[in-house]
């Protein structure tokens, strides 16, 4: 989830007093790096996936599943391995917010060769196996978006207790001791709470079954912030303790990175709905299928003034979103006229960037990110060499957790301009995660080769983001989507009304179901999978890779059409058909145990689950790709 710095974290008061310093120097650092790297050309298309996992500990006798707080021990061993052979390791491991979480990526990025799609799943399996070897009896690693009983009594192993009256989080439910032990994470939690002026607060609609009791529990007696008919969550850990599946792409230059950033933006809500995997929070079935708004609320450091609840006095801006949310403006020329939501940005920073020859769109993007204060600062890092360091820039950049992230090359490295694709939820099996990764990567190829245009007004993307999280959205909701994605130039009437700042009248886009978007609408919309297949038909690919890709695409197709369930729907179904379920929305210890043991078996392939996976076979590839092939792949197929 970002930069890990060694050293001593500052208190919130100290951090606050340095906020302007970090902002000013962060901007200078960006200007310097931009000057150095704006014309960087010829990087090749590379990409990689990131999967976040949880470590679960089963007590098979008592039939209980808890979160094991051993990720720091496991990570220490994995990082030692990396240190001993940085070039040779097949995987890289990083900490995440939860003391029970761990994040894994392939050791090297993948390149432009289609054969790489055949090793994604093998690498994911390798990663799982690698961690599994370090686990203790009863422990398993799961790629599950949210642990269903996170925040319920004694949900960790060893048992930890919440400390509502002291510490970083002050949650009624989420103990500080469940946070990963690196000081950054606790520090972030405390600073976000102190900056906001109160604990974070999320009130989720409970899924109302026939016996669901309202109030759902006694939270509303303990806190004014809790609503009786809602599942109340009051800690950063409820959000940042969730897992996701992310992708990073390296573009050949800054221009291509800006295009990818914009073109992938309207796909974020679509992929969120398609990968929905988290309907259960703090032991309750809820009416949402995704983690997104929960994380957003869990790091919402805006003060009352910034949230528009009080007139501005101490703060500079009323800000309409949390620092974790969907993006607020496009970066490419084709996106410019679709920036229809007034952007909140720091005018002085904007002017400074403009004065340094940074164009309007990029300047407003950076000036928008920099409306935020630093929420984590280490004393050793205050004074920096702005010519070469980028820590202050990264400080703000890496705590703007948006659906897409536009990333400049790191200092002194061979890495180019990149974008991150961040909406997807983690899926249970490596097969599913690999399928989603390959689908999105193939989409980027199709977008760039066919110069497709998916851009719709930002306000419509925002609307789609909200719809994507509703229960059953994958099948039941519609999403604004561009009707003609093959036009480079949008119809003139669309241009006119979008220029005026409202887009409702545009007929360039219309509501579509996920099925129509993915599989097409006869005579009207081609569908993303048919487009990908069309693209692939012109490519040379070995039979094995071809079969793997087709399995993945079939899976995406079936998930979009509803032939197979989303993870969220499957989880709901498992809970509601469990013999112990009392139609009261509650996910008990025993249901949780049975659910997680079943998930573990599905993931290992010990039980088949056609409802979730269809009738697919997983990729058989075990070996990593031969070096010669790897080198060849580093040439772009587009070249
Ligand atoms: N776990 C967060 C999520 O589910 C992402 C944290 C990160 O940026 O790595 O979106
Ligand atoms: Mg992460």
From TrEMBL:
Catalytic activity: L-cysteine + L-glutamate + ATP = gamma-L-glutamyl-L-cysteine + ADP + phosphate + H(+)
Superkingdom as given in the UniProt entry: Eukaryota
Main enzyme class: ligase
InterPro entries to which the protein is assigned, alphabetical: GCS (IPR004308), Gln_synth/guanido_kin_cat_dom (IPR014746)
Alphabetical keyword list: ATP-binding, Glutathione biosynthesis, Ligase, Nucleotide-binding
This protein's record includes keyword Nucleotide-binding: yes
GO BP field: glutathione biosynthetic process
Protein name: Glutamate--cysteine ligase
Pfam families assigned to the protein according to its UniProt record, in alphabetical order: GCS
GO cellular component: glutamate-cysteine ligase complex
SUPFAM superfamilies found in the cross-reference section: Glutamine synthetase/guanido kinase
Family recorded in the similarity comment: Belongs to the glutamate--cysteine ligase type 3 family.
Pathway: Sulfur metabolism; glutathione biosynthesis; glutathione from L-cysteine and L-glutamate: step 1/2
Claim: Nucleotide-binding is one of the keywords in the record: yes
GO molecular function, one term: ATP binding
Protein purpose: Catalyzes the ATP-dependent ligation of L-glutamate and L-cysteine and participates in the first and rate-limiting step in glutathione biosynthesis.
Annotated EC: 6.3.2.2
């Amino acid at each position: 989830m970002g930069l890990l710095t060694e050293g001593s974290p500052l208190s919130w008061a100290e951090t606050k007093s340095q906020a302007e310093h970090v902002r000013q120097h962060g901007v200078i650092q960006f200007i310097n790096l931009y000057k150095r790297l704006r014309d960087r050309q010829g990087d090749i298309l590379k990409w990689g996936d990131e999967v976040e996992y949880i470590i679960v500990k089963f007590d098979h006798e008592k039939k209980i599943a808890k979160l094991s707080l051993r990720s720091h021990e496991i990570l220490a061993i994995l990082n030692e391995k990396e240190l001993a052979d940085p070039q040779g390791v097949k995987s890289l491991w990083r900490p995440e917010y939860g003391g029970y979480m761990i994040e894994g990526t392939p050791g090297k990025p993948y390149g432009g060769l289609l054969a790489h799609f055949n090793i994604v799943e093998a690498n994911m399996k390798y990663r799982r196996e690698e961690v599994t070897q370090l686990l203790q009896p009863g422990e398993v690693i799961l790629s599950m978006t949210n642990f269903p009983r996170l925040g319920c009594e004694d949900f960790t192993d060893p048992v930890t207790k919440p400390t509502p009256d002291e510490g970083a989080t002050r949650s009624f439910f989420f103990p500080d001791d469940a946070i990963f032990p690196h000081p950054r994470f606790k520090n972030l939690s405390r600073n976000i709470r102190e900056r906001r002026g109160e604990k974070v607060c999320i009130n989720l609609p409970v899924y109302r079954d026939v016996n669901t009791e309202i109030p759902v529990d006694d939270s509303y007696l303990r806190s004014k912030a809790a609503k009786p008919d809602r599942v109340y969550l009051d800690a950063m850990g409820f959000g940042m303790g969730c897992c996701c599946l992310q992708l990073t792409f390296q573009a050949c230059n800054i221009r291509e990175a800006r295009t990818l950033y914009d073109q992938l933006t309207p796909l974020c809500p679509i992929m969120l709905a398609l990968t929905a995997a988290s309907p259960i929070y703090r032991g309750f079935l809820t009416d949402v299928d995704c983690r997104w708004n929960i994380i957003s609320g869990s790091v919402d450091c805006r003060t009352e003034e910034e949230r528009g609840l009080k007139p501005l006095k101490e703060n500079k801006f009323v800000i309409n979103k949390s620092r974790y949310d969907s993006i607020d403006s496009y970066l490419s020329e084709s996106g410019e006229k679709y920036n229809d939501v007034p952007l909140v940005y720091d005018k002085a920073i904007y002017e400074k960037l403009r004065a340094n020859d940074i164009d309007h769109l990029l300047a407003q993007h950076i000036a928008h990110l920099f409306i935020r204060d630093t929420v984590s600062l280490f004393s050793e890092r205050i004074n920096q060499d702005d010519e070469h360091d980028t820590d202050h820039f990264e400080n703000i950049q890496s705590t703007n957790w948006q659906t897409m992230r536009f990333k400049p090359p790191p200092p002194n490295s061979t890495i180019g301009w990149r974008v991150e694709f961040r909406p997807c939820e983690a899926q249970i099996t490596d097969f599913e995660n690999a399928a989603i990764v390959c689908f999105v990567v193939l989409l980027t190829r199709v977008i760039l080769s066919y110069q497709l245009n998916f851009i719709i007004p930002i306000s419509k993307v925002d609307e789609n983001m909200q719809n994507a999280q509703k229960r059953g959205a994958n099948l039941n909701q519609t999403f604004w989507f561009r009707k003609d994605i093959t036009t480079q130039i949008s119809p003139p009437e669309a241009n006119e009304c979008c220029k005026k700042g409202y887009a409702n009248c545009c007929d360039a886009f219309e509501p579509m179901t996920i099925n129509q978007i993915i599989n097409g609408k006869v005579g009207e919309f081609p569908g993303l999978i048919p487009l990908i297949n069309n693209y692939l038909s012109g490519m040379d690919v070995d039979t094995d890779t071809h079969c793997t890709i087709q399995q993945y695409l079939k899976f995406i197709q079936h998930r979009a059409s509803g032939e197979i369930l989303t993870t969220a729907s499957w989880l709901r179904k498992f809970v509601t058909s469990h013999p112990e379920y009392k139609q009261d929305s509650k996910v008990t210890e025993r249901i949780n145990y049975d659910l997680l043991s079943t998930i573990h078996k599905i993931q290992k392939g010990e039980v088949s689950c056609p409802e979730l996976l269809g009738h697919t076979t997983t990729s058989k590839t075990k070996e990593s790709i031969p070096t010669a092939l790897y080198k060849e792949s580093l040439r772009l197929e587009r070249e």
